[in-house]
Amino acid sequence: MKAKELKGKSTPELQRLLQNNREKLRQLRFDLSSKKIKNVRELRKIRKGIARILTVLKS
What is the Cα–Cα distance from 42 to 12, expressed in whole angstroms? Predict the structure, then answer.
């Protein structure tokens, strides 16, 4: 999700999105450790999404 799209969302929506992304990241890490995941770039994409959300929340 782009930063411009995130700026248009309310704080509760961003908090919910952040929580969902952190849960996805946790699940992907478990899948990675059990060798179930094929696309390891997905981890990077989720981490960057979390950073974008946190940046918008702080500003």
Answer: 25
Tell me, letter by letter, the H, E, C secondary structure of 3-58: HHHHHCCCHHHHHHHHHHHHHHHHHHHHHHHCCCCCCCHHHHHHHHHHHHHHHHHH
pTM of model > 0.70: yes
> Could you tell me the CATH number of the domain that includes residue 40?
1.10.287
pLDDT band for position 2 (cuts 50, 70, 90)? confident
| Domain total of the chain | 1
Let me know: does 1 contact 26? Beta carbons within 8 Å: no
